[in-house]
Amino acid sequence: MNIIKYSFAIALIIATGPSWGQIYKTVDEHGNISYSDKPSKQQKSELVNLPELNRSQAMDLKNKPKAKAAPFFKPVYRLYLLSPKHQSHLTAGLRDLSVEAKFEVNINSNSADQSAVNQALANAKTGLKIELLHNGKLLASSNGKAKIKEIPQGTHKLQARLRSATGATVATSESATIYVHRPSSLLRQASADESELEPLAEDQQQTSSDGDTEQAADGPTPEASDAEQTKPENEEAEAAEEAAENDAPESESASAPDTAEGAEDSNDQD
Question: Is the CATH number of domain 73-180 2.60.40.10?
């Protein structure tokens, strides 16, 4: 009870603020303590000396300045697969495949100090390494570039990943699927056979040409000489045949009067 009255008195003093005057403490016959700004008429009261109250102005919480946040520098990594393009086709004439990737680094920061941002960017780029993957296997690459020699026919998957100086993977590119086309084994064998036959045909043609040139230089062949000797004989035979054909009508016209005369002689005898 005494505690409640004491607390109530303290609250009253605070509520009245600077307007309060003197405070009196009164204790009755039962030992109860009460406080009042006026002394009691029934019991003896004593003046209470209270400490000086805090008279500072209350804080404006609405306009309270916000605490300044500590500056942060967060690197953001991006990795791109430049070549080959996704869903591209490699034709039979292209035997090798070139693979290339590149990365970008940006800094997200709340700092207005550009020099600090540039330093954070330089630190983020230190020790970065691009790794190229072909069907899940690591390719030997340099500066994000590699070449696959004599890539076989079929479907192939390519991807790149970016590792930090500590070996942690900080970025991964989108994968690219490509399709490699190659001629069948029969077509390859036929092409090889044609390649082998072409030099042989050229050699034969060259040999034949060389032989004709040598014969022209040495003179006519025996067959050519026989043909030249036979030519006059053939011409004479043809001339004789033409003469015989021309004489044939005269012989027929000469035999016709003889036949007529023979018929007249026969009639006279009859």
Answer: yes
